[in-house]
Every structure is written in C-alpha cells, then in structure tokens.
Design a protein that fits this description.
heterodimer; A: 254 residues; alpha/beta; 6-stranded mixed beta sheet; 4-stranded antiparallel beta sheet; 12 strands; 33% helix; 27% strand; B: 323 residues; mainly alpha; 13 helices; 77% helix; globular
Chain lengths: 254, 323
C-alpha cells in the first residue's frame, strides 16, 4: 500500500487574498477521505495544489512518497488522478474517446489490450456503455459528469482526487458513485473527495477533514468530526445530528 | 492512423481534388510556345500557394487548440501584424537600400526568430495559464485584438514617418497578393515550415490532450506550459512563412478551420491538420486558377477571402460560437 498524503506548511494566496493559512495535514492511504467545509474554506484550492494543477507557493506536499513539486508530470500522472470542475471541450469527442484519454499516462496515445479493457470497465462501472458512442456535447450535465468520472477512474492511479464529483448527479448516480469509490478503496486505492453533502461523507468516508477560512479545523472518523457542535460552528448555522446504523445522520434542511 | 473509413474516404476525395486543381493550374491553357518557361513559372507559384495554404492551415489549427477557441486565428490575434511591424522597423532602421541589400534568407530567418521570441513573450503569458473560463476567453480575444491593432498602428505610424520610397516598400509588404508570391523565399520558407509541420504532426496525440484543457492535460501528465510554448513557437514560424511569402491574410485560416471542423467534426489532431492543409491548398490553388485564368484578373483572390472570411467571423460571433 502506498504512503499517504503529507502536507506541511502549505499556504496559498490568490490576487493577494490569503486562501490557505499554514496547513499541516496527513491524509491516510487506502482510505476514503472526505474534505468538507463551507464555501470559500479552501477545499478546492488544497486539492488542486495536491494534484499540482496550481503551483505550490509555500510548504511541501508528498503523495505516496513523491514530492509533488519535484516529480515529473508523467510520473505524477501514474500516482494520482484528479477531477475538478471541468470546462468545455474544444474537440468534439465521443464518450468512449474521452474515457480513453484516462489511459494517456499509461500508453501515450498508443492503447494496448490492457488500456481497452480498462476503458471498457470504466464505461461499464459508470453505466455509460449505452452512451459510449454519443458525443459529449449531446449529453446531459449528469451524464457528462459520469463520463469525466469514468475517465478519471480509468487512469487507474493509487490516488483518486475528486472535487465535488456529485455535482449534477441525481440521487441514484450519486449513490452509485460513492459505491464505486468505496470499491476502489476496498481494492487498496486511496480516495480524497470534496463533498458538500455531509450524509454522503458520513455514510461512505473512513476519514473526514473539515476546513474553514483556509484552515483545517477538525479531522478524524465521521463520528468524531460530524457532531452537532462542530458542524454548527463550521457552517455558522444550527445543525442537528442524529444517528442511523451507527453513523451520524445530519439534519440541516429545516 | 485513421480509424474511421468515412474520414479516410473524405481525405482521399480531398487529395484527389487538390491533384485536379494542381493539374488545372499547371496544364490548362498552356498553349504551344515556351512551354518549359511557362511550366516553370506555374510550378513556382503552385509551390508557393501550397506552402502558404499548408502553413496558414496548420498554424490556425495549432492556435485554436492552444487558445481553446474556434474563432480565433493567429492573424486575428495579430501574429502577421507583428511580422509586418518587424519588417517595417527593419525598413525604418536600414532604409530602403539597406533593407533591399540584406541577404534574403538570413533576413527572413532573423525576422522569423524575432517573431517567435516576441510571440512567445506576448502570447505565452496570456495562454500559458489556460484558464478556459468565459472571462479568460473574452480577455484573450480582447487582448489579441488590441495587440493586432497596436502592431498595425505601429507599422502605419512608422510608415508615415518614412520617406515616400520607404513608405512604398512598407505598403508593398502590407497587403496580400497571391498572384505574386515572393519566389526568393520559397526555399527558405519550405526549410522552416516543413519541419514545423512535421513536428506538429508528431505532436498530434499531445495536441489532443492539450485540447482537453489545462486541468485535464496536467492531471494526465502533459507538460502543459512547455506544450503551449512549443505550439506557439510553431504557430509563429508558420505565420512568418506565409506572411513573408504572400503578405497578411486575416481570414483564410478562419475559413479553413471552419470548413475542417464542419467536414471532420470529431477528428483527432493528426487528421485535422492534414485535412486543414488539404482544404487550404484546394481553396488557394483552385481560387487562384479561377481568378487568374477564368476571370482574367478581374478580381483578386485575397480580397474575396477577406470578405468571405470576415462575414464568417461575424456569423460565428453573432451565433455565439465562442468555443
């Protein structure tokens, strides 16, 4: 099993605004870790720094023992896959073609049998086989989201980093995604996922990290982090927490 | 290389049409006297047209990928205006005689290298971040348009400060003329553009990844910044070749890229580059044949291309086809 993510002294500024205060954090390997917190907490920024989408300004980050700032791009792409908020595609792609791009770090555009098999598996896992030959611009938002997720998973990296992957997904596909992430975790892969729906974090994550105003304010098991006092303070609003099957059940809709 | 039989068939048809157009250009109305001389002249011009078409087409496809936008072309962003500004500055610094006495090849190479460096400096910072949001695209377009105006105004201002002879020299290089390409530069242009096109084809799969956008490209392990800068450098070299040979052609690339997208909507870059080059060659060779031989120089191809391309640009803008 690979080593975890080690974050030491990471700060980040955007246009002069301090987005991340000094952050020290360890994310365990082989687990599903949910990153939660209110808007503007710095969750997406932190995940993008881990994936080296944005350059590191201060501190250091190691993923699976690799120094993110110093590791060659091609090597890092074999260690972690990242899915953020995707912008539009310039090229007109079919779903199968987009998912096949997930194999680029392994085959550099010359796919072999193992790559075709991985693409087929990802299409099946995300219920995309019926849509495999459709163009991306013909899909609904949720279908496109699943295609991007399938591409990320097809990369078959030890670490999978997802920034709000449940956006645009209906309840059934949101749950199916969490089932799939749990399956990846059970296979020994490590998942770090930014979530806004706290009940998905409670139901599926092994480890929860909460952030507010650019700082990590709590981390631990769902039962340790998803408590009434902590969540009410985190979101500055009264939140009731019940229990279902020994997991916290967050009631924040009334 | 190409998986879809339909696409291969389309490429085959395009190749056939280019061959027919080239044959028409070479042999139609040849007459009986001085055939070798006429064929030589026609061959020279055909070579220039093919070189120009291929360079403009490949440069446009490359630039649209790196800018993640289907209506931007290097010309609209001011690349050829930058090349003209460099030439105008050279005329101003050296005078007409000094400019004319410079060895053609080395002068061309220095101008092209200078243009590549300036283009990387100006557009590398703009496109290297690769934001991809509507704000980034709007900023890219506005910056490019402003830069284009700035370069053209700079050329015009310097031209007006020159003596009439120098001004005439600047004017001569400021307008496209497919009928009189700069024959002295065909060999030099080919020496630069053919390797650039070969590199672009070799980079085809990486260009496919680049087209996914910065975040995707980075997470797939592409060295995004190096790829953007390399693509811009290739674009600058190809625009320099076409501008040096025939002058600035603002909208040829837009027409070619639009037709390529329409005919090959889902093509990967290697196929798209090839298709765009064939379409551009067909347009230029057939167009020049029609205007020169059928219409007897009653109209000028460059003007028609600018008019049609300008209308297409407006249509794409008004239809909101910003990407």
């Amino acid at each position: 099993m690979s080593e975890g993510i080690q974050i030491r002294g990471v700060t980040h500024r955007i246009h002069g605004a301090q987005i991340l205060q000094p952050i020290d954090l360890s994310v365990p390997a082989g687990k599903m870790t949910a990153l939660i917190g209110p808007n503007g907490a710095g969750k997406s920024t932190l995940v993008r720094l881990i994936a080296r989408i944005d350059p590191l300004q201060n501190g250091d980050i190691h993923v699976g023992g690799l120094d993110v700032a110093a590791t060659p791009s091609a090597r890092l792409a074999l260690e972690l896959a990242f899915m953020g908020q995707h912008s539009g595609l310039v090229s007109r792609l079919r779903v199968r073609e987009l998912v096949a791009f997930g194999r680029w770090p392994h085959c550099q555009g010359r796919p072999g049998p193992a790559d075709h098999a991985a693409v087929g598996q990802a299409l099946t896992d995300f219920d995309l086989m019926p849509l495999a030959d459709r163009f991306m611009d013909e899909l609904s938002g949720g279908q496109a989201q699943r295609a991007h997720l399938a591409m990320t998973v097809a990369q078959q990296t030890p670490w999978v980093l997802l920034d709000e992957p449940l956006n645009n997904l209906d309840l059934a596909h949101a749950r199916a995604l969490m089932v799939h992430l749990a399956r990846l975790r059970d296979q020994g892969r490590s998942v770090l996922v930014v979530l806004h729906d706290l009940n998905f974090a409670s139901g599926w994550a092994d480890h929860v990290v909460s952030m507010k105003a650019g700082q990590v304010v709590a981390q631990g098991t769902p039962a340790e982090v998803l408590t009434e006092p902590r969540l009410s303070a985190l979101y500055d609003t009264p939140i009731t927490v019940g229990s279902y099957q020994d997991r916290p059940l967050i009631l924040h809709h009334m | 290389m190409f998986s879809k039989p339909a696409m291969r068939a389309k490429i085959g048809v395009l190749v056939g049409l280019v061959v027919v157009a080239a044959a028409l250009w070479m042999f139609q109305g040849l007459g009986s006297g001085r055939r070798d001389f006429i064929l030589g002249l026609r061959w020279e011009k055909l070579t220039a047209l093919i070189l120009i078409g291929t360079s403009v087409a490949v440069a446009t496809v490359l630039f649209q990928t790196v800018s993640r936008n289907r209506i931007l072309t290097p010309s609209i962003m001011g690349f050829d205006a930058l090349y003209l500004l460099i030439q105008t500055l050279a005329v101003a610094a050296l005078g007409v005689a000094g400019f004319a006495m410079l060895a053609v090849g080395p002068k061309f190479l220095i101008e092209t290298a200078l243009m590549a460096v300036l283009a990387l400096g100006l557009f590398g910072a703009l496109l290297g971040r690769g934001g991809g949001t509507a704000d980034d695209i709007a900023r890219t377009i506005l910056t490019g348009v402003v830069l284009g105006i700035l370069f053209r105004a700079g050329s015009s201002l310097i031209g007006r400060l020159l003596d009439p002879n120098a001004y005439a020299t600047v004017q001569a290089i400021s307008f496209a003329n497919f009928g009189r390409p700069n024959a002295a530069l065909i060999g030099w242009g080919a020496a630069l553009s053919l390797p650039a096109i070969a590199i672009a084809l070799w980079l085809g799969p990486r260009l496919d990844v680049l087209g996914l956008g910065r975040d995707r490209a980075v997470t797939l392990g592409l060295n995004y910044r190096a790829m953007v800068m390399g693509t811009l450098a290739l674009t600058a070299v190809l625009v320099a070749v076409s501008t040096a040979l025939v002058g600035p052609v603002a909208f040829l690339g837009l027409i070619v890229a639009g037709l390529t997208h329409g005919l090959f909507p889902a093509a990967r870059h290697r196929l798209r580059l090839l298709a765009a080059a064939l379409i551009a060659c067909l347009l230029l060779v057939l167009g020049q044949w029609v205007f020169e031989r059928i219409l007897g120089q009653q109209a000028v191809l460059s003007v028609v291309i600018e008019f049609v391309g300008g209308v297409l640009f407006l249509v794409l803008l008004l239809r909101g086809r910003i990407r």
